[in-house]
Design a protein that fits this description.
alpha+beta; 60s Ribosomal Protein L30, Chain: A; 2 helices; 6 strands
Length: 130
Amino acid sequence: MATVKVRVQTDNAPAAIGPYSQAIKAGGFVFASGQIPIDPQTGEFVAGGIGEQTEQVLKNLSAVLEAAGSSLARVVKTTVFLADMKEFASMNEVYGKFFTGEPPARATVAAAGLPKDARVEIEAVALVSE
């Protein structure tokens, strides 16, 4: 049985800045690439610190998931990459406002350098109806 994968693309989130897709749907899941805090309307980073960056990242992730026929409520796993683990508590506070009820499994790791010097990047795997 051939596995079908479908590329997901939306203008409501930043365009991919390399040879990758915003997300791929396959096998009842959507695999969303890491999102950084770029405002898709301006193409620029949002102003502010880790809190504002985390909020924009999750808005971007939500837009990609919605384009794939999913949502933040259907996320089963995230990976959070932080430029500085000292900002964990601030990131976590904002993150918790987006994932209420049954939050997904998560790993949070420090990354020596994120794209465009972002403070935070988040990727996700979510359930999707095909």
